[in-house]
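Please produce the structure of this protein holding coenzyme A.
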Amino acid sequence: MPDLLVPLYHLPGPVEMNGIWIGRPPSHLAHRVAGYVGDNFGERWRSESLSSLRAVPPKMLVAVEEGAGGIKGFCCWDATALGFLGPVGVSPEARGRGIGKALVLRCLSMMRDQGYGYAVIGAAGPVGFFQSFCDARPIEGSEPGIYHCPIDGSSRPD
Ligand SMILES: CC(C)(COP(=O)(O)OP(=O)(O)OC[C@H]1O[C@@H](n2cnc3c(N)ncnc32)[C@H](O)[C@@H]1OP(=O)(O)O)[C@@H](O)C(=O)NCCC(=O)NCCS
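Below is the modeled complex.
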């Protein structure tokens, strides 16, 4: 899976969503958010999201269904490396409603406001998802990327 490079100086405008609140999780609810990520997307993403959750203010946005009150998705930046966006995930039952797109675009615009000129989407799985709404370009030579580490048995090509 290649990394994708996203120029932040020509992003599309934000997506408004009816009935979905998108915002930064407050630190006193970090345990709830980390639990959501772990339960729905596994321990690796839970670990990765912790650095974004523990930043002040958090470098993470969550999507919450208003009324029902449940977390439906999340997106992090600066989690594993500065300038990287991800992980991003939407609960299976909430997919296809534009939540993932709204989360990613809001996070990209927050990265731009933070001073980045480009964002990197590391080891992008569904490349077509990102390319459907922003100018995401595969980075040549980006495999294996930053996620490969001898701790979990994967080796670097050098
Ligand atoms: C990828 C994911 C975040 C998409 O969330 P979503 O809320 O269902 O996506 P959206 O509804 O916002 O879709 C936005 C657009 O992307 C397209 N899209 C969604 N998933 C796609 C995929 N896997 N491949 C290609 N295009 C995709 C949609 O058709 C839509 O296009 P449209 O605007 O022309 O209708 C979600 O499927 C998910 O959590 N997957 C598992 C985790 C994952 O793979 N995360 C990304 C890697 S870090």
